[in-house]
Amino acid sequence: MAIDGAPVRPIDHLLLRGDPARPALDGRSGSYDYAELEQTLGRLAGWLAGFGLEPGARVASWIAKGPVAALMPLAAPRAGLVHVPVNPLLKHAQVAHILADSGARLLIGTAARLDTLQPGDAPADCQLHREEDAACAMSGGPAIGPSSAAPDDLAAILYTSGSTGRPKGVMLTHANLWLGAVAVADYLALSPDDRTACVLPFSFDYGQNQLLSTWYAGGCVYPLDYLTPRDVVKLVERRDITTLAGVPPLWVQLAELDWPTETAGKLKRLTNSGGALTRPLVAKLRALFPQADLYPMYGLTEAFRSTYLPPALVDAHPDSMGQAIPFAEILVVRPDGSIAADDEPGELVHCGPLVAQGYWRDPARTAERFKPAPPASRYGGTAVWSGDTVRRDGQGLLYFVGRYDAMIKSAGNRISPTEIEDAAAAVPGVVEAVAIGVPDDRLGQAVRLLLRGNASIDAVADHLKQELPTFMQPRDIRLLDAFPRNPNGKIDRVALAQEHGA
Q: Which pTM value belongs to this model?
């Protein structure tokens, strides 16, 4: 099958594109060429298939970066299963929700993470297995060959937080993942000589695509769970890294370090998503890495990647989101569904084959975001209505204007205020809780938690540290005597954000 002239294959065929003798995966756990990694993939898929789960069953992984984490996005689909990657930073309550919502039948986790699960966190029919078991199977177990999956077969469910409610699972097919890899490899001009540092979590679509696009191009990936930004510098120096993807807070930290000229010169391309780069930061990166192309990008998990700004335009248009990536049709739409004029704000609508299949087992929220494409779309079908306001200039470049919802974006993470508020409300003495995003030079946004009641701030902070991952922790907590109300009697979040969001 071909889409827009591009052949689409099952995602687990990806490694078959590479030169068998060239390096495909390198890291602290060893190195593999494409032939070795394909064989290892077959063994991991064979191990998964050996559990006898029904086709399409969900298998979750809650592990740090390494060969198992890198191959699970391919191994689960090869075994006829659906992969559910879990952010390693999440704690037991968030993991319990993902396992229950996805109906996971198998969870692979590190021993330390599995030990944190409490009774009832895993569904009764969900098997728990240690990462070491999977690694052992990869080293010498029975292997299975490439799958014959159809392009529209489900391959993965990626969980992402919206502005309200629990994280929701975005359903991705083989075609979604394959075309995402093709698109990014194309506009980044990746080649077999490239070595990509994978420092972002594989549970993010941006992080997972670091692997898939590099492998599509026949290059080598180096997964890294870094402790400090200096670890990234050391990696670039020691492994001759050519491609580095990050989010704005990481770029802020990296730009503050002393980069030896020779080390900085190894990088050929820098890519950014998960928040906009500021003009001063763009200038710093251009000065620090003069030989590297800089790619600002915009995307959302529901439609993978939407836009990128070609490096040649960065200096002249540092505030722009750029233009549509391959296989994406990006429209700026008025409330009546017609196309906005140049420089007229409108909603960004993403059409085409990169659009996901909706939210797993959530038809109500699917209907809110996945709607029929505007009449002007050349693709038609279902489109993602982003909720983000943008404008298009006379050259066709897009600029971000604002966000409709209250989602907090901090250090590249999309944080649900409701999840923080629910955790705070569990503390005795908390009557009401509202989480808002406040500007932060390093994070983009930080979380500020507003409380009403007579609870101790220290008690709330201690509870949140136990229940929420680090990136969800409030920067500060404030007790208020009262919350403003709107005419319907609901908390006026806009008023709270205006008064306490600075």
A: 0.87
